[in-house]
Design goal:
Order of helices and strands: HEHEHEHEEHHEHEHEEHHEEH
Largest sheet: 11 strands, mixed
Number of domains: 2
CATH superfamily of the largest domain: Periplasmic binding protein-like II
Distance between the termini: 8 Å
CATH topology of the largest domain: D-Maltodextrin-Binding Protein, domain 2
Number of helices: 11
Helix content: 40-55%
């Protein structure tokens, strides 16, 4: 519990500093380029490649062809909780793509978002990816599923649940995996087994970086035996010839990622291009780009067949298994992880 409070204090300090920076004009502000316009997007850490390498250029070309106007993008990427806090403190985002729906709900509560974001296609979810375990080449620790991460001597990298949406997905994945497997075996989900597995695994965590991307970077340096993360992070590392392997748990969660327009920062002139860009995220062109960069399409499962690197999950589940984020956060992230795992 002390460790959790210390991390929370550091995040609150970061929010204070961000607020001071905003007051003094030190954070970037959205501005139209000469003869064109700029869209500012704040996203959770792993969105960078798909957006900057494929989706931004595709939409800019589409906008130019349709409106004879140049369009460019500014981006800022960090842990989903951090991004949300930045926007709530006044960061100049026109669009946000976040790791968890709960963060969008926080933006609604903070009056940064006033639109009915769930009325967007697929209830606002633009893509998804399963949670997996990354291990060293050859899998020297013989890790085959989440419970193996509790073995004595395993050194686990895990992003920080205070700042990272990916970390919260990971906790739900471990806990829910044991519920699903026990339910398949006995007909009843075993909450005691799920709690004990999560507690045992957490004892082997040796570092908690601020985001999923920071955790990947740390793992890439050779630190730790295993990392729980998004499938796409493992695929990007393998694509870069990193000496890692992906272990697919028997049962794991699919994280689902919402996009939202930040109404507070838009005037009517800018709104047209921003809303057009957000709608473009559900186009076949954009969904194919997500798949190319190892996200799974949220709207068309057939598109996922183009990526032969995607692994198979025997017993997949989503946050709806817990009743959605409105229940998963208080009942598992707070009451299970914070109150029963962190206090050990």
């Amino acid at each position: 519990m002390k460790k959790f409070k210390n991390k929370l204090a550091r995040v609150l300090f970061f929010i204070l500093i961000s607020s001071l920076l905003l007051t003094n004009g030190c954070l970037p502000t959205p501005q139209d380029t000469k003869g064109g316009r700029t869209i500012t997007l704040y996203g959770f850490s792993i969105m960078k490649e798909a957006l900057e390498k494929e989706i931004y250029p595709a939409f800019a070309a589409k906008w130019k062809a349709e409106h004879s106007e140049d369009l460019s993008f500014n981006s800022s990427f960090a842990g989903s909780e951090v991004v949300t806090n930045q926007i709530l403190q006044g960061a100049p985002a026109d669009v946000a793509i976040l790791s968890i729906e709960r963060d969008v709900d926080r933006l609604v509560e903070g009056k940064a978002v006033t639109n009915d974001w769930r009325s967007l296609p697929n209830k606002g979810i633009v893509n998804k990816t399963p949670f997996v375990i990354l291990v060293r080449k050859g899998n020297p620790k013989a890790i085959t599923d989440f419970p193996d991460l509790a073995k004595p001597g395993i050194k686990l990298i895990h992003p920080d649940p205070v700042s990272s949406g990916g970390a919260q997905w990971s906790i739900l994945s471990i806990y829910g995996s044991e519920l699903k497997k026990s339910e398949s075996q006995t007909g009843t989900p075993d909450k005691t087994r799920a709690l004990q597995t999560l507690q045992a695994i957490w004892k082997n965590v040796i570092a908690t970086p601020g985001s999923a991307r920071e955790a990947r970077t740390q793992f890439e340096t050779g630190f730790g035996d295993a990392l729980i993360t998004y499938e796409l992070e493992g695929l990007l590392m393998k694509q870069a010839n990193s000496p890692v392997e992906i272990v697919y748990p028997k049962s794991t969660i699919f994280s689902e990622h919402p996009a939202v327009v930040i109404d507070r920062n838009l005037n009517e002139v800018k709104r047209a291009s921003v809303e057009a860009f957000v709608k473009f995220l559900w186009s076949e062109e954009a969904q194919k780009a997500f798949v190319k960069y190892h996200f799974r399409s949220a709207t068309n499962e057939a598109l996922n067949e183009a990526n032969k690197e995607f692994g198979k999950i025997e017993e997949p589940f989503t946050v709806e298994y817990f009743g959605g984020w409105n229940r998963a956060y208080p009942e598992i992230i707070e009451q299970v992880f914070r109150d029963q795992v962190m206090k050990k």
